[in-house]
Each structure stands twice: as structure tokens, then as C-alpha cells.
Queue: 2 jobs
Job 1
Amino acid sequence: MTDRDVSRPNSTPSADDQHLVARYEHLLEITRQLNSTLDLGTLLNRIVRAATELVNTEQASILLLDPATGELRFEAASNLSGSAMTAIPVPMEGSLAGWVATHGEPEMVNDARSDSRWFANVDKTIKFTTRNLLAVPMKIKNEVIGVLEVINKNDDEKWTGDDIYTLTTLASQAAIAVQNARLFQQSDFIAEIVHELRTPLAALRASTALLMRANIPELRRAEMLRTMHEETERLTAMTTDFLDLARLESGRARLETSEFSVLELVQECVGLIREQAGERGIEIVVRGEDRRTEADRTKIKRVLLNLLTNAIKYNRDQGTIYCTVDRRDDLTAPCGLVVLIQDTGHGISPENQKHVFEKFYRVAATASQTGTGLGLSIARRIIEAHGCEMGLTSELNVGTTFYFTLPIAHAQPRREPPASAVFSRPKDPSQ
Ligand SMILES: Nc1ncnc2c1ncn2[C@@H]1O[C@H](COP(=O)(O)OP(=O)(O)OP(=O)(O)O)[C@@H](O)[C@H]1O
Ligand SMILES: [Mg+2]
């Protein structure tokens, strides 16, 4: 490719001049508009729309690099629903977007069918035919944060140096706008955290001020110390939650996966909360098959403990909790196992169901129970970080079922050897 020069092309006195001037004016106007929103979703949609308009193509899409896994993921496309795209993994090797992200340079394909770097899997998945495409890096200084692609030029002409220049300029402006939106999301979160920290801090402050007085009766003093201890515990738990959520949201949380039995983990967690359930006469039933998964055990334990604690907190006295491990009907699904935590509590109304996974959201009717409203948002993010999903079904005055899926471990569960083979050593596969 010779026309990799992305500096502004020399103006040639041709009929195209007017068209170019109009294009650059349009580019200028669009980059101004990009900075007028801090909502990431809106911003990404604006960028893809602007890209198709500016270089006159059928479609455009944005792939952002996940800082934790280094994976490239579709985040927005001009004519497809987000969910259809995000399910498509784009490998760093063997895809044009991967090449652009790795090398930090634009690249184009004038005939996709004859170019091996075109990752045809995407076409197959979304039933779309790519004829030609141009991909440019989204860079901040020298760091690539994603790739902006435009697909199928409307006139099917070859890509020009001007197309590359226009798209590269748009991509670098877009990268800054994306970073600003991300920073804004973080600062919003910080404001909420500070707000949440204020309540326990106020309790601690009041107690310490009282304790400093000399004439406090011993009984009252002990009571205040207990409050201080509880509030300190609450603060500690909250700061752990904040940190975990911030890591999960920014993609910095790393998964340490291992293979383990899901049923065993459920039983372990139930063991930890059985006493708490017993205090309210709540029975816990564990059932299902001994399925093995490959996941981050500590994080999945956290998910289970929050769901089980919720099932106790928001249950009725003498209620029941059913924990089930099952295999999903769709055997080809990447997350083939499902865990269900079902309670016999008051249920969650359809309106509240829409919000329970949001940070800090707590249903007003349950406000007498302690909690920060972060448990479910952390839990869902952990499950999504595994590429799996979490959801719920609920009926008022009947109960709620939270479920999440997990990947099936590649290796099958150990089978009992046939009686005749009990004493023979299994063959080492490496021999
Ligand atoms: N099993 C359930 N039945 C009824 N309501 C529930 C259930 N689980 C969660 N909720 C509602 O959803 C809200 C959010 O749950 P979440 O676990 O995120 O926060 P929390 O339990 O309030 O606090 P924490 O951060 O300590 O977990 C709860 O406050 C409660 O109103
Ligand atoms: Mg909770």
C-alpha cells in the first residue's frame, strides 16, 4: 500500500475540491458535536454515524480494546443492534481490526474476498457481505484504545488518501471523546461513593465525640463502642465493594480461573450462611448435578454469597431457599451451566426488576435491611466478565429466582472406573 500518508493531501485544482472542502467542514462540525456528550453509548453511536456520512459508506463500527483481557470487542455499529455485535469475538491475530490495533496504523482492503486478513466470521454471524473496508486506529498519544472501521464504500471505488485522512482525524477526536466519557463515568461513581461513606462516618464521628466526654456511664460506653465497631465493619465492606466495582467497571479486574465443582462451591457457601438463615427459620435446599466449571472460584463465591444473603434478607420468616445447579438445554451455548437461587420472599415488582442491577439501587420496601445496593451490580459484572449472563424472574408475594450461567469445564467430570479396572493405573496420556 503506497498511500499510507495520512497528512492532508495536496489540493489539486479539480472538481473534487469543493467536495473536499465540504467534507472537512463537515468533519470540523462533527468533532465539535462529539465533545458535547459525555454519555458513552450516545457518543459511540454518533461516531459511527459520522464515519459513514463522512466517507460515504454503508456501515461503520467501533471496536474498543478491553484493557484487562486485551480483547477487541464491538461496541457500536451504524446499522446493527449492539447486542448482536458484542457477542462476536474479534481475534487480534487473523483480523484486520486486530492488525490495526496492534500496529497502530490504518489499513484498507479493496476486495475483502481475496484478502485473508478479513475476519469473515463476523459476516457469517450478522449475515452481511463485506466488499471493502477501511480501518483506522483510535489513538490517544501513542496508545491505541480501539479501531474505527468503515465498510462498503457506496460507489465501490478504491479508498483514497483523503478517506484515510478524514477517518484518521475523526478517530483521534473520537478517542479523546471516549476517554472523556469514561473519566466522567468514573467521577460520577466517586460522587456516589462519597455520598454513601457519609452515613457510617457520621455515626462514627458522633460516637467518638460522645466518648471523649468523661462522664459517660459504662453501659452506654460499651453500646457506643459496639456501634463504632459495626460502622467500621460496614465501612470496610463498602470500601472493598467500591474497589471491586471500580476494577470491574474499568476492566482492570483479572480473572484467575481454575476448574472446580459448582455444587461443592454452592454447598460451601450455604455452610457459611446457614446460621444466619437458621435465625429466621429459613430452610436451604441444595440440589442438582455435580457439574464442573472453569471460572474464577473466589469471584463466583462472592456472587453466590450475595445471592444467598439476599435470599435470606429479603425472604419471609420460615421461608425456603432452593439452590440448583443444572445444565442448560442449549448444549452448544458457551456458558452451558446454570445456577438458580430461588427464594420464597416478597418478590420484586416488574418496575423494580429493571433497576436492581444498578449501582446503589435498593427497593424502598426493603430499606429496613442493611445493605449498600452494590451486591447485585458487582455480581452481574463478575458473571459478565466470564462471558456469561445473570438475570432474574420474580412474582410479588411468591418469591424471586436469580440465575446465572457459567462455562462448562472442558474436561468431563471424573467417572468411576469399571470394577475390573479399579486396581489398574490410568494410562498417562503423554506416553
Ligand atoms: N431475593 C430478593 N428478593 C427481593 N428483593 C431483592 C432480592 N435480592 C435483591 N433484592 C432487592 O434488590 C436490591 C439490590 O440488591 P443488592 O444485593 O445489589 O444490594 P443490597 O443487598 O441492598 O446491599 P449489598 O450491597 O450489601 O448487597 C436490594 O436492596 C433489594 O431491594
Ligand atoms: Mg445484597
Job 2
Amino acid sequence: MASTKICAFDELEENQAVKVEIDGVPIVVVRDSAGDVFAIGDTCTHGDISLSEGFVEDDTVECWAHGSKFSLKSGRPLNLPAYEPVPVFTVELINGDVFIDPTPHYVTA
Ligand code: FES
């Protein structure tokens, strides 16, 4: 699937979760303190909660409902109650703009 421009890199605030939708796919986007940008599925796998409403810390986003933290790098939950990963999406930075490919990937290992 083709990548879609979501915003300029400078529009992303450090460690602030932003929700975008590309082709109906809800995605949470985070720029970390090192300047890396991550995009993972926005819907918690434990319940129908938007992870973009949660808390960002140490390259994780925490679901506010029951506290599962998902890795921004792998999409995997690091603690219960969620035990299934959210998808990871490919991010590209091109000429100062952020592009996301909405094709889901699951990190298994
Ligand atoms: S709904 Fe996200 S941890 Fe329960």
C-alpha cells in the first residue's frame, strides 16, 4: 500500500500520542525524545480503547483503561491484561514530512 503523508515532522510534539486514520485504519503516532517516529495500531487489544488517549513513556504507550503498555517499536504488550500485539506501521521521513504505510505488520519474535 502506498504511504500517506500525515504531517510535518515539526508538528509532532515529543512524547505526545497523536491519532490518525489512513484508509479507515486507526494509528497512533509518537515522536520520541530521540527524534524517532513510531506508528502502531491505535486500538488496545484488550478493549475498544484508543491508545492515543494513553500515556507515553520510554518508547511505550500505556492504555489508560487497565494499564497495559505497548512497545512503540514492536507493538507488543509488555504487561497484562492485554496479551495480543497491535500492528506496527512503516514510517518514513521525507523532506521533513512524516509518511506512514497503513499496511499492518506484526512483530512475532
Ligand atoms: S482496554 Fe486496554 S488494557 Fe484494558
